Amino acid sequence: MANKIKLDLRSLTVPAKVQFMRQVVTKLTGNADFPTPNPSLVAIGAKADELEAAYNLQQTAQQSAKAATTSLGTAEDAADAAMNSLAGYVDEKSGGVPAKIQSTGLNTRAPKTPTTTLDAPQNFTLTAGDNEGEVDAQWDPVDRSRGYELQISDDPPTPTSWRPGDLPSGSKTTLTGQLSGSKLWGRVRALGPKKVKSPWSDPAVKRVP
């Protein structure tokens, strides 16, 4: 069985490919076994020259782009610093009077409004966990919440059957150590600053794996 040529051009860098092409041209020049290469060796050499030129142009452009990006970042940082200094000057001289500040084209910050209410978490679900006795709980995040309080209950839930679950900071948690085969109920509420608490979510139920 005749051997087939393995070029593997995709594994070569552009400089290595140019070198390889020129090496082949050198080896084929005057080779009696291959008197009329197609494409011609001149054409192959020209393609190697074109590839090298395009690569060098790309490298130059890449270095220019890096320099331009660095220059842009430096200029932006300097512009931000200047505007922060100007804002400090206007803030001091205006005495905090909104009309004076706005007359300069600068904007005033909206006054902070205290969080007095939180919405109940939505789309609370319970799903089977990865291991026996585990149940995953998940819900939609609540704006301005600082954490959540989860409660669980055996089946059926009653007003007095709910007991503490987890206190996750995010909108999901895994309940471990649950009785496999039992029905587990859960609900969650959001916790905010100054002991603000949302209403409880709609409860969900899942049989523990």
Tell me about this structure.
The protein has 209 residues and is α+β, with helices and mostly antiparallel strands. The protein folds into 2 domains: 74 residues; 83 residues, Immunoglobulin-like (Sandwich), CATH 2.60.40.10. The protein is 35% helix and 17% strand. The chain is built from 3 helices and 7 strands; from the N terminus they run αααβββββββ. A 4-stranded antiparallel beta sheet has the order 4-3-6-7, with no helix packed on it. A 3-stranded antiparallel beta sheet has the order 1-2-5, with no helix packed on it. Helix 1 runs antiparallel to helix 2. The radius of gyration is 35 Å and the shape is flat. The chain starts with 13 loop residues before the first helix and ends with a strand. The model has no long low-confidence stretch (mean pLDDT 93).
Strand content: 15-25%
Give the neighbour order of strands across the main sheet: 4-3-6-7
Detail the poorly predicted runs.
Answer: none
If classified by CATH, what would the architecture of the largest domain be?
Sandwich
The helix content is 25-40%
The major beta sheet can be summarized as: 4 strands, antiparallel
CATH superfamily of the largest domain: Immunoglobulins
Q: How would you state the average pLDDT, rounded?
A: 93
What is Rg? Answer: 35 Å
